[in-house]
C-alpha cells in the first residue's frame, strides 16, 4: 500500500527537528487520569446478553495472538501451540481459529511450518525483546532474521530509556528503521506502558509510533508488573481514533499481558466499540496478546452451547 500523503506530511512537519517534535508531543491534549479511569470503569460495567456474549467470545478468540515467550520454549511446544491455534476445540469445529501465534525469532520457522495453509499469522517479537537494550543494528538484524524464518508480523519494543530521557526523535527514527526493515510485514510497536509512568507519556508514545508507521500500537510485553489495563488501552484507542480523523490512516491496537478471562476480554471489546468504533472490531485492527485467555474463552463458549461448565480439565494446558 502506498504511503498516505497526509500522514507522511504530518510526520515530516513535526519531526523536522528535535525541538519541533518536542513541541508537537507536549502540545497534545493532557490526560485527565481520574476521568480516563472513570470512563474505562464505567464501560466495564456494560451488561452483555447471551447472544451478544456468544458473538463476543468468538470474536475474541479470533483476535488472539496465542503466545509463548519463554526461555524454555522448544519446537515441540511451539508446534503444539500452533495445533491449538488451528483447532482450539477438537470437539467443536465451529470454533474460530486464533489470529496469530507469537514466538521468539528462533522459533518463527517452526511456527511457519506448523501453520502453513492455515491462514494464521506468525508473529515474532524482535528488537531485543523484552528490554530492547541492544543497538539499532542488532534490532534490525533481529527483525530480518525473524522475517527470513517466516514471520508475517513483527512485535518490536521501543527504547524506553530513550523515551523517558526525552529523546523522542531517536525513538521515532528507530521505529522508522525497523518498519523499513520489516517491509510488507505488519509492525506492532510495544510501549511497555507500565514503565512510561504517566498517561501523558502513553499518549505521546502512541503518536510517536503512529507517525513512524506502526501498523499496531501495543501496550506491553507481558514481562513487567503492570501490563494491559482498561485505562491505558482506552487511551490508546482514543489515539488511533484521533490519528485516523487527522490523517485518514487506521492503526490497530493490541493490549497484552494480564488479560486472562472472558469477562476481561469482553470489557476490552466494549472499549473498542465505544471508543474507536466498529471499524476496529476485527482481528485486522485489534488483537489480544495472551497465553491463557483462550482456555477461559473455550470454557465459556462450551457453557453457552451446552449449559454445562466443564472446568479447566476440558482444555489443554499450554
Automatic annotation (TrEMBL):
Please give the SMART domains that the UniProt record associates with this protein. DeoC
- Keyword Lyase on entry: yes
Q: Which GO terms describe its cellular component?
A: cytoplasm
Q: Which Gene3D superfamilies match?
A: Aldolase class I
Pathway where it operates: Carbohydrate degradation; 2-deoxy-D-ribose 1-phosphate degradation; D-glyceraldehyde 3-phosphate and acetaldehyde from 2-deoxy-alpha-D-ribose 1-phosphate: step 2/2
Record-listed E.C. numbers = 4.1.2.4
Q: Keywords for this entry?
A: Lyase, Schiff base
Molecular function per GO: deoxyribose-phosphate aldolase activity
Q: Is Lyase among this UniProt entry's keywords?
A: yes
> Which reaction is recorded as catalysed by this protein?
2-deoxy-D-ribose 5-phosphate = D-glyceraldehyde 3-phosphate + acetaldehyde
Q: Name one GO biological process term.
A: carbohydrate catabolic process
Q: Which PANTHER family match?
A: DEOXYRIBOSE-PHOSPHATE ALDOLASE (PTHR10889:SF3)
Family indicated by similarity: Belongs to the DeoC/FbaB aldolase family. DeoC type 2 subfamily.
Q: What is this protein called?
A: Deoxyribose-phosphate aldolase
Which organism is the protein's source? Streptomyces smaragdinus
Identify the taxonomic lineage of the organism of origin: Bacteria, Bacillati, Actinomycetota, Actinomycetes, Kitasatosporales
Amino acid at each position: 500500500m502506498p504511503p498516505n500523503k497526509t500522514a507522511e506530511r504530518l510526520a515530516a512537519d513535526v519531526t523536522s527537528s528535535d525541538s519541533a517534535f518536542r513541541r508537537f508531543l507536549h502540545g497534545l491534549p493532557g490526560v485527565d487520569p481520574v476521568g480516563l479511569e472513570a470512563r474505562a470503569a464505567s464501560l466495564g460495567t456494560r451488561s452483555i446478553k447471551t447472544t451478544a456474549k456468544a458473538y463476543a467470545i468468538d470474536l475474541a478468540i479470533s483476535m488472539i495472538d496465542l503466545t509463548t515467550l519463554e526461555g524454555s520454549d522448544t519446537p515441540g511446544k511451539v508446534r503444539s501451540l500452533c495445533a491449538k491455534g488451528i483447532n482450539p476445540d477438537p470437539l467443536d469445529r465451529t470454533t474460530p481459529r486464533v489470529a496469530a501465534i507469537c514466538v521468539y525469532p528462533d522459533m518463527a520457522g517452526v511456527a511457519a511450518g506448523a501453520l502453513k495453509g492455515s491462514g494464521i499469522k506468525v508473529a515474532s517479537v524482535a528488537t531485543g525483546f523484552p528490554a530492547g537494550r541492544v543497538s539499532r543494528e542488532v534490532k534490525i538484524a533481529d527483525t530480518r532474521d525473524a522475517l527470513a524464518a517466516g514471520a508475517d508480523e513483527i512485535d518490536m519494543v521501543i527504547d524506553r530509556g530513550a523515551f523517558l530521557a526525552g529523546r523522542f526523535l531517536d525513538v521515532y527514527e528507530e521505529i522508522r528503521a525497523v518498519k523499513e526493515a520489516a517491509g510488507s510485514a505488519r509492525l506492532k510497536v510495544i510501549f511497555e506502558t507500565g514503565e512510561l509512568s504517566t498517561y501523558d507519556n502513553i499518549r505521546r508514545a502512541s503518536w510517536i509510533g503512529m507517525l513512524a508507521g506502526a501498523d499496531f500500537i501495543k501496550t506491553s510485553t507481558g514481562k513487567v508488573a503492570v501490563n494491559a489495563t482498561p485505562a491505558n488501552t482506552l487511551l490508546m484507542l482514543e489515539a488511533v481514533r484521533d490519528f485516523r480523523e487527522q490523517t485518514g490512516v487506521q492503526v490497530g491496537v493490541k493490549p497484552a499481558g494480564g488479560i486472562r478471562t472472558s469477562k476481561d476480554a469482553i470489557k476490552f471489546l466494549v472499549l473498542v466499540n465505544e471508543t474507536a468504533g466498529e471499524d476496529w472490531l476485527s482481528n485486522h485492527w485489534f488483537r489480544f496478546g495472551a497465553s491463557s485467555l483462550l482456555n477461559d474463552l473455550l470454557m465459556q463458549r462450551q457453557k453457552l452451547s451446552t449449559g454445562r461448565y466443564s472446568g479447566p480439565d476440558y482444555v489443554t494446558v499450554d
